Amino acid sequence: MRTGLVAIALSVLTPLAVWAQKGPAPAVATAPVPVEANKASQAELEMVKGIGPQLSGQLISVRATQPYKDWSDFIQRTSGVGAKRAAKLSSAGLTVNGTSYNAPATAGAGAPPSPARPVPQVARAASQ
Q: Is Nuclease there in the keyword field (predicted)?
């Protein structure tokens, strides 16, 4: 009887011991699947993080009149989408004509820093 219990215990505990040594499977980082704004269905558009039913419907109706030329055209013709949101949608996988969004350089980005303001000098009383 004792031999049977040992065999059962080993058959149950051995896989647990192996799992405990390996630990949980590591998380695999995956890049978002590209979704083309000019060709994707409403369901495909809604798979992009940040696009819900309202925005996907708007994208489909706007592109029906004329496909988006580029990201600036996309931003100009899509209500509620500016440079910041376009960057988020692009990083989530949305493309326009196969390209990701590259934010334009902001004015003054390459300008040298302004000179530091002079620190006011405090007059010290002469001691002695």
A: no
Q: What is the pTM of this model?
A: 0.60
Q: How far apart are CA 53 and CA 44, in angstroms?
A: 11
Q: Tokens 């040594």 label which residue?
A: 21
- The CATH number covering residue 59 comes to 1.10.150
Report phi then psi at 95, rounded to 5: -125, 155
Q: Are 53 and 46 within 8 A, CB to CB?
A: yes
pLDDT given at position 104: 76
- The first and second tokens of residue 101, run together, are 């969004």
Pairwise pLDDT comparison (21 vs 40), residue with the higher score:
40
Q: How many angstroms separate the Cα of 26 from the Cα of each of 19, 22, 23? A: 13, 10, 9
Lowest mean pLDDT: which of 26-35, 40-49, 85-94, 114-123? 114-123
